[in-house]
């Protein structure tokens, strides 16, 4: 699962030992994400590290820069320095819109949901994050489970051998996911759908002619997605596993993106960063793993379809 944590800048930045120990606990592949609370959280950490040795502070700065892509998530919560300390702000927001947990140097008022630095380990109940779990096969439920990836990525790939934008079951999940991206306020997110070509799939000309009907009410204004069809190579890798792949991390979607109803469950699983990148590489336009079926089609929210 993907959980959001508020991490006190002073707690993680108080020493190189604390920073190194805590930062490695987070990432889209670990199921734990550091909330950017406040919005300039990294700057607060760097300021808290003022007493470190110069070489340690330099290492911290590099590590923070590297962590931006795979360990942080936008908070969206207000932060008011006039309200008090970081801990007081975090506690106030936790009461309104809870983090999974708050990690802090101390917990002076014994607030539930706070883990002190000394208590942090993989076995602490608030630090446990299952790497595989099940959710109902409902579009909005799938989108909620995928939200941290969808709202943090610049590139999003829906990979499903049978993904078919003409079917309502796929439209439901696609709409829910695109709505999440749109609501996050992220601009310029590239969305792609990758599927395996087969004899029963309609030809590109049919998709070009009919897509405007299928995506009505699915694509938020100003958004688009790109359709990639692939063929397996004789003696090569199969195109079977279903994934949500992004530039910040990925997950396996065992039964695929089709919304079949709450009576069915789909297993989700976090991918390692290396595996995510390997799967992204396999789906590049000049793939060395599969054969691309031309043309590649971009479907826009106004209903127009373009060969790209």
Automatic annotation (TrEMBL):
<keyword id="KW-0614">Plasmid</keyword>
<protein>
    <submittedName>
        <fullName>Uncharacterized protein</fullName>
    </submittedName>
</protein>
